[in-house]
Amino acid sequence: MRLPPVDPTEPPSLYKRAITPIALSSVGQWYLKGPAPVLDDRLFRWTRGRLTSVPGIPILLLKSVGAKSGRPRLNALGYFNDGERVIAMASNYGGTRNPAWYYNVRANPDVTLTAGGREGRYRAEITSGAERDRLWELAKGYIDAYEMYEGMTAGVREVPVIAFTPMDPE
User: Fold this and answer.
1) Can you give the pTM of this predicted structure?
2) Cβ-contact 9, 138 below 8 angstroms
3) Domain enclosing residue 137, as ranges
4) Which one of 3, 65, 91, 163 is CB 3.0 to 4.6 Å from 108, fit for a cystine?
5) How far is Cα 68 from Cα 73, in angstroms, rounded to an integer?
6) How many domains does the chain contain in total?
């Protein structure tokens, strides 16, 4: 089953326009990096991806296999769609290292994604070149924080853009 579609080119809602300055503030970044992932992990499991601690921002739950441990891993991520593909940024909030989930999907690309009460099997692909750049520009236009994260990672790393392609027929 496909996840609810998210069009990154749609104009932002009034709510998103109001919450963006808060999310980009130091308090907002603290919340997004600290309490939000813990809360989202629990909320997502309890509600099958229907509720998030940051309403109005599309979030999915990534179920992957640990690259080193081989154990199941769960991560809440922001996303949007590019056709049938689900797109996520390995931004790590502008950190100098890629997030752990990036290494997990690189080593074990077959994953399960859940959002909006829907769940499906997907295969992850790390994009590159012009395709990566096109998707990154869409992401920056959709979520203002990515522009900030790009500045924070400049000269250190390029933020990976991951495309998840559905494995199940619709």
Assistant:
1) 0.86
2) yes
3) 14-166
4) 65
5) 11
6) 1
The answer to whether 76 touches 59, Cβ cutoff 8 Å, is yes
Instruction: Name residues whose C-beta falls within 8 Å of residue 137's C-beta, 6 or more positions apart in sequence.
Output: none
Query: What CATH number is associated with residue 33?
Result: 2.30.110.10
What is residue 55's predicted lDDT score, i.e. its pLDDT? 66
Between 31 and 80, whose confidence is greater?
80
Enter the tokens of residue 50.
């229907």
Measured between alpha carbons, how far is 159 from 7 in angstroms, rounded to an integer? 21
Going by C-alpha positions, the residue among 152, 158, 167 that lies closest to residue 93 is 152
- Which residue bears the tokens 């997004």? 32
Identity of residue 151:
G
The token pair that represents 69 in the structure block = 């441990």
Q: Are 146 and 138 in contact (CB under 8 A)?
A: no
Question: Is 45 part of any domain?
Answer: yes
Q: CA-CA distance, 44 to 112, in Å (whole number)?
A: 13
Tally of residues, the chain: 170
pLDDT in tens, 98-116: 999 999 999 999 999 988 8
